[in-house]
TrEMBL record:
Residues 12-197 form the Calcineurin-like phosphoesterase domain. Keywords: Hydrolase, Iron, Metal-binding. CDD domains: MPP_GpdQ. Transmembrane segments: none annotated. Its EC number is 3.1.4.53. This is 3',5'-cyclic-AMP phosphodiesterase. It comes from the Bacteria. It is an enzyme of class 3 (hydrolase). The gene is cpdA. Belongs to the cyclic nucleotide phosphodiesterase class-III family. It comes from Pseudomonas urmiensis. Pfam families: Metallophos.
Length: 266
């Protein structure tokens, strides 16, 4: 009897973003210890995601760009024991990241029927993002060489208006140049961090996704800087061989968020 053809299992991906770790293990943002919150998120991931094929860490892994902060991030995430990729955010030092974990800072990863492209949108000394010509050229090459693979593109800065007036000026300044390159059937989704909140939008066939921080959360729809007391979290994705994508956000439900607005801020 011929055996039934079962579709390939989807690729299981987890995204962590905006950990903002310090060299000092006691380092806090608004009184929240960022190593502690990251540890709780990772524990939640371990409980909920028995299989992970790839871990994507999309920027602001560090708050101070120190070797010690990146070593701490690498050690805390090592308990997941999965292939991992990093990209820099505006608080990161890309050179230091590459020194601490050179094997993790890779622009293109092929896994199953998918190609994952990691873009560096950080601008030295600035909060906003920009994809330099070299990054756009690398994206062009990665998409052109993808063959039959579906593509997930990742960066740090938001490329769309999310309804927070204060965040708008610190987004990706040349988003139009990015979107012009993503108008290909093989490109299924664009994934980012930076905004410390959840975002999920469908635009012209492209899924646009952002993920809560593993530390403090920014209040959606705020005109001025405002944080919420939502718990830190992560995003999971299931990348199917036929190009379908399933995803969701989970939060560290056992983490108690206590903020101190008189302490040093974000």
């Amino acid at each position: 009897m011929p055996q039934p053809n079962h579709p390939p299992a989807p690729i299981h991906v987890v995204q962590l973003t905006d950990a903002h770790l310090f060299a000092d293990p006691a380092g806090t943002l608004l009184g929240l210890n960022t190593r502690d919150s990251l540890s709780h998120v990772i524990a939640q991931v371990r409980r909920e995601q028995p299989r992970i094929d790839l871990l994507l860490c999309t920027g602001d892994l560090s708050q101070d760009g120190s070797v010690a902060s990146y070593e701490a991030f690498r050690e805390l995430t090592a308990v997941l024991d999965v292939p991992t990729r990093w990209l820099p955010g505006n608080h990161d030092e890309a050179r230091v990241m590459a020194e601490v974990a050179p094997a993790l800072v890779r622009a293109v990863t092929d896994i199953g029927a998918w190609r994952i492209v990691m873009l560096d949108s950080a601008v030295a000394g600035a909060t906003h993002g920009l994809l330099e010509p070299a990054q756009l050229a690398a994206l062009d090459a990665a998409l052109a060489g993808a063959g039959e693979r579906h593509c997930l593109v990742c960066c740090h800065h938001q490329p769309v208006d999310i309804g927070c007036a204060w965040i708008a000026p610190i987004g990706l300044r040349n988003a139009d140049e990015l979107f012009a390159r993503l108008r290909l059937p093989r490109v299924k989704a664009l994934l980012w961090g930076h905004i410390h909140q959840q975002w999920d939008e469908q635009r012209d066939g492209l899924r646009l996704l952002a993920t809560p921080s593993t530390c403090i959360q920014f209040a959606p729809g705020s005109e001025d800087f405002k944080v919420s007391e939502e718990q830190p979290g992560y995003r999971w994705l299931r990348l199917h061989a036929d190009g379908r994508l399933e995803t969701g956000v989970e939060r560290a439900r056992d983490f108690v968020v206590t903020l101190d607005f008189d302490s040093p801020g974000y």
